[in-house]
Specification:
12 helices; alpha+beta; single chain; YojJ-like (1
Length: 274
């Protein structure tokens, strides 16, 4: 009888709602970490997390004075968090409002087996690949943003309306150095070149590869805020890079570039075969 009245066995009474609660909290913490990793805010995030864990340990050991001090720090720290993490909180709230928030878990590796739905996008990538190879060969800088399910227009400043079907010759002509539209990003959405000469917000990631410039930082910035695929052609080296899902694949060889870009839109390619 003592076995069933033991406090230890009473403590391990876990409901299925408790499991869901833990999983949801773990997922929210993971998304917060995923947003701030690689930025200067990651050290602050880990520091605050360490203080919170220490506070809970001190509280469990009933060290009242230190627990009171840490508790006051945590209480006031909530206000400081909104000041220090302004940009990160904005990104997190934007991701919450994005219909791809849960699907983003599949792309980031968390709960990958629970979310297997693929985005339905219809992009003809062959003209884009052809134009990028030509631009890379001629060392003509370019930044092309290919929209998927999220609307990148919310994160774009200015730009000239184009509204033309995707065409490799048109892409090349826009990024020619003597073209008035060559400086800035081109936006491709729903198989149309929507805008050119657009300005994007820069990524604050501190782990950018050596040799990257404003185009790469702009590409990563839009990839951190939307599910768009950003393509960069370096003006200095002619290298090809892709930014997607808050990651930058830098200096890809042509075959790997083609493979990666095709992989992001493999659904459309498979549909065309049937």
């Amino acid at each position: 009888m003592e076995l069933y009245t033991n406090p230890i066995f009473l403590f391990i009474d876990i409901r299925w709602l408790d499991v869901i609660d833990v999983l949801l909290v773990a997922y929210l913490i993971y998304r917060l970490y995923y947003i701030v990793k690689g930025t200067s805010a990651i050290n602050i995030f880990l520091g605050i997390l360490s203080i919170y864990v220490l506070w809970k340990i001190v509280e469990a050991f009933q060290m009242e004075m230190l627990s009171e001090i840490l508790g006051q720090f945590i209480g006031v720290g909530v206000i400081a968090l909104f000041i220090v993490f302004q940009q990160e909180i904005r990104k997190f709230l934007l991701s919450l409002g994005n219909r791809d928030f849960l699907i983003g878990a599949r792309n980031s590796g968390f709960f990958s087996r629970l979310f297997k739905s693929d985005p339905e996008v219809h992009v003809k990538i062959e003209p884009i690949i052809k134009a990028c190879h030509y631009l890379a060969k001629k060392k003509i800088g370019a930044l092309i943003i290919v929209a998927r399910k999220s609307d990148p227009s919310l994160f774009i400043i200015g730009g000239q309306d184009i509204n033309a079907n995707i065409n490799s010759d048109l892409i090349v002509s826009i990024f020619q150095k003597d073209s008035p539209l060559h400086d800035g990003a081109m936006i491709v959405n729903d198989n149309r070149i929507v805008k050119a000469q657009c300005v994007l917000s820069l990524s604050e990631n501190t782990n950018m590869p050596e040799g990257t410039g404003l185009r790469h930082r702009s590409a990563l910035g839009i990839a951190e805020q939307t599910d768009a695929v950003a393509i960069v052609v370096s003006e200095q080296t002619g290298s090809l890079s892709i930014a997607h899902d808050s990651r930058l694949l830098y200096n890809l060889v042509p075959d790997l570039f083609d493979h990666k870009l095709s992989h992001y839109f493999d659904i459309e390619r498979q549909k065309k075969k049937h």
